[in-house]
Amino acid sequence: MLLALGAMPSLGAEAAVDAVFDTEILRARGLDPALAEYFRGKPRFAEGRQQVTLLRNGEVLGEVEAEFDAQGQLCFSPALLEWASLQGPPPDEAEGVSVAPACYDFVGAWPQTQVQLNPNLNRVALLVPTAAILPQPQEEIQLESGGVGGMLNYDLSASSYQGLGSGSRSLSLDTEAGVNVGDWIVRSRQFYYSNNGQGQFSDLGAYAQRSFVSQRARLQLGVINVDSPLFAAGQLLGAQWTPESGLEQGGPGARVEGIANSVARVEVRQAGVLIHVAQVPAGPFSFDNLRLNNRYVDLEVTVAESDGGERRFTVPAASLGLDAAAPLGYSLAMGRLRDYADDGEEPLLLTGSGSWALGARAQGTLGALSTSQYQALGLGADIGLSADTSLSVRGVSSHAREEGVFGHQSNWAMSTRMSEAMSASLSASFQSEGYRDLGEATAVYGRGQLSEARKRRTRAQYSASLGWSHQRAGSFRLSYSSSRSFDGHVSSRWLGSWGRSFKWMSLNLNVENGRNSFDGRRYQAWYLNFSLPLEKRRINSTVRSSGGDTSLNTSVSETVNEYWGYQLSAEQSRRGTGVSANVNVQPRYASARLGMGQNYAGRHFSAGLSGGLAFHRDGVTASPAQIQGSFGVLSTGKVSGVRVNTPGGAVWTDAGGRAVIPSLTAYDVSRLEVDVKSLPRTVELKNGYKELKVSRGAVRHVEFDVFQTRRVLLEVKDGMGQPLSAGGSVLTAENRFVTTVVEGGKVFLDNAEPGQTLTVTTANGNRCQLDFALPETVDEQVFYEQLDAVCRAEA
């Protein structure tokens, strides 16, 4: 029947030539002649709401719920116009009222419009004049703002090692708590770290901040890190006004990379403050976008191996992204320094700077900083030498009043993209013997330590990197960093890597060579990895050499499903054998990790738990990811276990049908998309895709409208107990066509409703009313329910 009746072209908005059906032939074939009237014009959508794929001028806009009238024509509803970004009716055209009509005559307003309806593909294609498409805002940012919500982030890690005659235990807890109110962000971050019972608590600051879009600036109050484009100013208790970086093209965060010889604990410190700690497996490791206290202070990295060995290296400040231009605008900070001063004194600090555009490809920066013990002036320039090459220069002159010395420091950084396949960067930092930064000028030095500290001060730092990729040869990267002190002490570090993917496998080689910046000892290591993917599983085999020892490690890892995965490995070296197991679990509302192993030196164990809690108007909701400055809460009615993709990763609704949107990108589009496969079989969405654009600090509540649908397969018998004849039309009480009766008296209802009145008209014109009872409870595990029905002849 579908082939016979649907073999006509779908003409959309164009006039269709009405088809003429021989009703006697239809009746002879057992089909209701009323079908001829329904399908006379062309294939069409059934009346009501339909889930379709929408295209506009060839661009796929996604799945949308569209309305169709009794003739199967598309209704240009306000929701459809908003989804397709089309011009709606002005207020004076909406029948003199402020409410838009249910179906706007869009084709009448834009006669060039073509509407192509493809019911066989569940697709609607619109071809509209470009003038009918709403322009996207360029300069004026349309934002959703405001909202109230609280949050708590946590990251708990524990590890232990037990060897021959020695052992160690460590515990760390990183927490961040706060509240968002009317675009104000209030946060407090703490870090606790314990090693063998020796605990250290760090208060990393408590502050409040708000961004002002019209001024393109941000205000911070409380314990804050001074965000200066020129100076390493440290942390203070006070206030700060800076350009809003979210409205600018921001650069990447700091990156730290290296090689661990075994399962190791990596600690990253800046100016003595622990800012990151993590457990890593044997082999190359890297941390991206680390939150720094200041990008002008070196990072000190400690790699504590599971066998008790320890190695340290320094990441020079010159390689921490100095080629990123400062945001345009003015910066001002004032307050009292924390944890620097002698005798408990906390000097008052005042610093200010400004950055201005100097033509189309350059900008300049000027600033000053002053305390009672220290003054500094700074000047900087960021220049685009070409479309692919940029140069950044910074210079600072200082006066340390207590020591009575003057000095200067300069920083240079250049990056270039020489071709599509090759890029390079260079950076260098120099300072005179009399130069002091703020921390050095106000730090507590004993008299006996002052001379030694001066000698070990850095005179120059250099770093360089080169990257090249080729389709056949693979990807290469080489980086170098070096630091020289005034007493002649030199530390250096080389890192090289190569990777190549083949049809069935991939190879990676990492090499590290350097001299320890703390004791001057040299170290070298290389790491060769072979990876073979097998559907969900992956086999890795690695050969590693370090300290004169070579080892072979083979592991198998598998992502079992979206909730958990594991890795099992075995290692053989000249010193013995070892085995280990690691499991990563994400039970929807938190993230957990567990690792254990044993080798020739001893046993090790590690565990961790991280996530977040959002406090909102409807209660408390857990998040598997940590919650950022702008976040939200989504709802899918009362439906639990629904998976939604968000900018902060996948989340799942809880028993109340709610889930946390852990991160919304400030001043940019954030996309939310429901995974329809995770919906119960009896639930459908009106719209499973939403876009938001929010201000920094906003807390949004997003509703995904869902509705229950009951798909029912009826086995219909007539009054004599015989299966109903095939070909009859099933109609509603308003004589709207629903479906047809197929062989065996079967009728499939896509959305059955309690108390629904349905009538069947047969080929000979007889009518009967369907009589069936829907159970009160719905089986959500089946796609459709099977029920018996009787078609009782109308009186």
TrEMBL record:
InterPro entries: Fimb_usher, FimD_plug_dom, PapC-like_C, PapC-like_C_sf, PapC_N, PapC_N_sf. It is a multi-pass membrane protein. One of its GO terms (biological process) is pilus assembly. It holds the Pfam family PapC_C. Residues 21-157 form the PapC N-terminal domain. One of its GO terms (molecular function) is fimbrial usher porin activity. Gene3D superfamilies: 2.60.40.2070, 2.60.40.3110, 3.10.20.410, Outer membrane usher protein FimD, plug domain (2.60.40.2610). It is found in: Cell outer membrane. It comes from the Bacteria. Keywords: Cell outer membrane, Membrane, Signal, Transmembrane, Transmembrane beta strand, Transport. Residues 713-776 form the PapC-like C-terminal domain. GO terms for cellular component: cell outer membrane. The keyword Glycosyltransferase does not apply. PANTHER family: FIMBRIAL USHER PROTEIN, OUTER MEMBRANE USHER PROTEIN. Belongs to the fimbrial export usher family. This is Fimbrial protein. It comes from Chromobacterium rhizoryzae.
